[in-house]
């Protein structure tokens, strides 16, 4: 089995004033910003984890200086944060993920910015453990036992891996050569994993957008957008078709370089990406475990403990549409250049036959304005959503981890001050049904209590009560179930209230 032993979520803010480097021109207006978290060190302690890292931020701004209208500024804010997480020990392996929930930049003056951000961090300790279940009995004592059939999913492969992706894209012939890249947005879509014999196939699309300065006296700004399909193989010893995958990925290290083409001109874009992949593969098995035992000639008692096993309930995906209008104030929109969106899952709860999801999508739209001082603009909006992922028969303890992403995003102009945004959000999860059982861990055998045995009649006509079954009756009188069937000529184990049974001790 695998489980998250302990987990904690915390939020904190980062804020600092940042001075422009001497080689950067003055700021006239801010345009676009984004941030990402890099974690450098994780130090587990007793009931807490110290996390040290950096928030990298990128700012695109306007300047009034000649030969340039847009400038990219990159910087970092270091942090060291303590996450309280009950149950963590110094030797534990703790996994920490960090996300920039919000980043705000304010211009203090033409050479200084105030950077504020809200960071969400999740720390968890995952572990593998065994549950031992009895499937047979050996020994000379005469005992009765019954089996319970179970369909279970036990973990077969649990590991983390990386998938490296290298691609090179050439600009179309009518685009100018690249002088420098001002802004880029890169994300993956339609990523799919398939379990094969001893391997996992990976496929999907890389969506790339760049805004760049072209070569030439006036350094023209150009936008380039493309989609690159990719595929590959991950070696995975022990997996085979028919297993149940629960595979999650995260886009990790990204490197983008400008490369010369065959003529030596800067027209190619090289991408080197790393996908951090968490692989959990389960194997469904049909088992029959020993669920109860009683003695016929001796006293037999059991020691049990409560365990939570599981079986696959559902692998499900769902989609919902969101739409909104964005009003642009303080300028006129001449042309839309690019739109990008990120979806945040803020709440999930189990409802009847499903998981209720609530959150928002942050959308950013870059556009061309009619202003000389700030020829490019960016509009942002938070679009809320509510959606129920349908999963029949789900219970609160069966909650699965939901993965959310923006599948489609389209922005269109309505007029010079308003645009229409439409998006399709995709959600997926693997849900396992919780199967609580009492597992026998020990069997104790002792001589029958003489007083108890003498108190039982040698022969009795038993009147069946509501809730009775052959097992409970046989256990009460120390008589094998087969003997009860034979004495009473029963064709099945079904009993009716008020039915009479003949019971003979020692028969």
Describe the protein in words:
- The chain is mainly beta and 507 residues long.
- It contains three helices and 20 strands.
- The strands form seven sheets. A three-stranded antiparallel β-sheet has the order 1-6-5, with no helix packed on it. The chain has a three-stranded antiparallel β-sheet with strand order 2-3-4, with no helix packed on it. A three-stranded antiparallel β-sheet has the order 7-12-11, with no helix packed on it.
- It starts with a strand and ends with a strand.
State the helicity in percent bands.
Answer: under 10%
User: How is the biggest beta sheet arranged?
Assistant: 3 strands, antiparallel
The number of helical runs is: 3
Quickly give the structural class.
mainly beta
Element order: H for helix, E for strand: EEEEEEEEEEEEEEEEEEHEHHE
Strand content: over 45%
* Shape field: elongated
On the 0-100 scale, what is the average pLDDT? Answer: 91
End-to-end CA span: 44 Å
- From the alpha-carbon coordinates, what is the Rg to the nearest angstrom? 33 Å
Placed side by side, the strands forming the largest sheet appear as 1-6-5
